[in-house]
Specification:
Layout: H1 9-23, E1 26-31, E2 39-43, E3 49-54, E4 60-65, E5 74-76, E6 80-83, E7 93-99, E8 103-107, E9 113-116, E10 121-126, E11 131-134, E12 140-146, E13 153-155, E14 163-164, E15 170-176, H2 184-189, E16 199-205, E17 210-212, H3 230-238, H4 241-250, H5 252-260, E18 285-293, E19 308-312, E20 315-317, E21 319-324, E22 330-336, H6 345-358, E23 364-370, E24 374-381, H7 384-390, H8 402-413, E25 422-428, H9 443-449, E26 452-457, H10 460-467, H11 475-478, H12 485-498, E27 503-504, H13 510-522, E28 525-531, E29 543-547, E30 553-562
Parallel strand pairs: 2-6, 2-8, 3-7, 3-9, 8-10, 9-11, 10-16, 11-17, 12-16, 13-17, 22-23, 22-25, 25-26, 26-27
Antiparallel strand pairs: 1-4, 4-7, 5-6, 12-15, 14-15, 18-28, 18-30, 19-20, 19-29, 21-28, 23-24
Helix pairs in contact: 3-4, 3-8, 4-5, 6-13
Length: 572
């Protein structure tokens, strides 16, 4: 099933990618003399191709290159577009807009091929480039071929099984949608009904990836069809529909087999799937647990009742009292023990024990380690001695399924605690090479969980050099002592969407300082008790809590009914 809000995400991703590239490139634009239903051959061996079909479109072509694209770089006719630049190393990217129901044939080498809209047929051939589509899926015939590798693909609907052919080729052939199976006579039975027009997809690649109606940013790092890990199985059992859909896409056969083995489940509500909110008797008083941060996302801890304003449906509500929250936290310490840190187990254990000693005695800690799967070393406990002892029970090695481990923590470990104060502290280098899930597929579930995330990303090269006590470091090795741009960007995003703080570690001494800062941030919360006229449970969408001071921001973690006497009201 295609989620409503996922429609055209591939299209938007491709357009944004082309726009971002063109912003730094010099482009050439030309009108095309292409009629409805025309056939067009496109060859671009030095770049990527985006072809978009639009209703009542004015056919056009845009060629972009960092060194500038000109008319003499292309050969254009009514039936053929070819990049013919004299410089064979010159990269030229094409964006082509066509009328609907055209027939197109596209060829690249390493360049991506993106197909968006309603075509009659699309034939795409590439060596290692990714082929992505966003086409109407109700009536599709597909013929996919890999000539030099096992298939790597993800589709928004179930494809037929892979067949191995001679000379090391692999093919997937089939059709999707009942409409595609109807004959023309069947279509004539009810001339008044609208029958989707059939689309034919024929793709051939040596070692590329094929994504059919799936946004590239929702695709995991390992596209092999493989058995589900314990983390993936727990995510399927959780009922989180967003994460379950991502697992299904990554391993449709194993997902289906495992799902059929489970008893009927009640799925958790997810973004975009809510049909209504629960209501009950109006509570005269409610208590909201909130966190206040400044523009640097640092907790603010010196506020009182006169600093807050509470409104429901735009109408201000009287605040009864404001207290600094001293409720204990449920903390998950998520440790990367994959092959990249295999030689630094002592460091991982030492760093984890330092965190355990830093947190307050009343806070409950769970320790989870991950490589290509997850292992819970300890459930939630306040026994620091026990927690420390469990750190001797793991070995390091294997792949890194970081995204799966984070999703498992949110969907399985913290799910029973929704509404309580929860946080995840991650000690990793932020890299992933084995997850079923992609990074972007986690974000909605993380936001819904209410858990704050504190990523401490430590480059493994930094651990090695500092443990050896090296002061003069070879400049060629310095690049291994910093985070990749991807992991740094993802760490920042995890902290931002969850209300946590990102700690990119550049010196090992920063880790203990980060721990102390995290504990300080966790304590920066308030409980605000106010008079309410709302009967909704949870956090009502019409509730707003703000601070009168400029550049301070409030995050509401939970709202619940409170019982108290009116004489307890504080005076601002």
């Amino acid at each position: 099933m295609i989620r409503p809000f996922a429609k055209h995400l591939v299209f938007l991703s491709a357009i944004c990618l082309a726009a971002a590239y063109s912003a730094n490139a010099q482009s050439f634009t030309a009108e095309l003399k292409v009629k409805d239903g025309a056939k067009l051959d496109i060859t671009n061996l030095t770049g990527r191709v985006l072809v978009r079909a639009e209703k009542d479109a004015k056919p056009s072509l845009t060629a972009a290159s960092p060194t500038g694209a000109a008319e003499n770089d292309l050969k254009i006719s009514a039936s053929k577009i070819e990049v013919v630049s004299k410089d064979r190393n010159k990269r030229i990217d094409l964006t082509i807009i066509l009328p609907q129901r055209c027939r197109v044939r596209i060829e690249t080498r390493e360049g991506e091929i993106a197909i968006v809209g309603n075509f009659e047929s699309v034939e795409a051939r590439t060596t290692t480039g990714t082929i992505t589509t966003d086409v109407p899926a109700s009536s599709v015939k597909y013929d996919l071929e890999w000539t030099q590798s096992r298939p790597r693909f993800v589709a928004d609907f179930e494809l037929e099984k892979v067949k191995e052919k001679s000379a090391g080729r692999f093919v997937i052939e089939g059709q999707n949608g009942e409409k595609a199976k109807k004959s023309h006579k069947d279509k004539d039975v009810d001339a008044q009904s609208e029958v989707p027009e059939h689309i034919q997809l024929k793709f051939s690649t040596a070692r590329g990836i094929v994504l059919i109606n799936v946004p590239p940013n929702e695709v995991g790092s390992d596209l092999r069809e493989r058995p589900l890990t314990e983390a993936a199985k727990a995510i399927v059992r959780s009922g989180d529909s967003l994460l379950m859909e991502a697992i299904r896409r990554a391993a449709p056969q194993y997902y289906g087999d495992y799902l059929r083995s489970l008893p009927p489940m009640k799925r958790l509500p997810s973004l975009g799937n809510s049909s209504g909110r629960e209501s009950g008797p109006a509570a005269e008083f409610k208590t909201a647990l909130v966190r206040v941060v400044d523009v640097q996302n640092r907790a603010v801890s010196d506020l009182n009742v006169s600093d807050f304003v509470v409104t429901e449906s735009g109408e201000q509500r009287p605040i009864v009292k404001v207290d600094r929250s001293d409720a204990p936290f449920n903390l998950v310490l998520l440790l990367d023990v994959s092959g990249s840190v295999e030689n630094y187990i002592t460091f991982i254990r030492k760093a984890a024990r330092a965190f355990i000693e830093t947190v307050e005695k009343k806070d409950r800690i769970s320790i989870i380690v991950f490589n290509e799967d997850v292992k819970v070393l300890s459930g939630f406990s306040t026994d620091k001695e026990h927690l420390s002892e469990t750190l001797d029970s793991f070995e390091a090695g294997g792949g890194t399924a970081f995204y799966d481990a984070l999703a498992y923590t949110v969907a399985d470990v913290l799910r029973p605690m929704k509404g309580e104060r929860t946080a995840i502290v991650i000690l990793s280098d932020g890299e992933d090479n084995r997850s079923f899930l992609a990074f972007d597929s986690l974000l909605g579930s993380i936001q819904e969980s209410g858990a704050m995330i504190y990523p401490l990303f430590v480059p493994t090269g930094l651990i090695q050099e500092e443990m050896l006590g090296k002061k003069d470091i070879d400049p060629m090795r310095k690049r291994y002592m910093s985070l990749t741009k991807r992991s740094e960007g993802e760490g920042e995003k995890l902290a931002k969407i969850s209300g946590g703080v990102f700690f990119p570690i550049s010196r090992l001494a920063q880790i203990n300082t980060a721990y102390e800062d995290i504990v300080k941030q966790l304590r920066g919360a308030y409980t605000i008790t106010f008079r309410s006229l709302s009967s909704e449970k949870g956090v009502p969408p019409n509730l707003r809590i703000r601070v009168k001071r400029e550049d301070l921001f409030v995050t509401i973690s939970s709202v619940k009914a409170a019982e108290m006497a009116t004489d307890q009201e504080q005076t601002p």
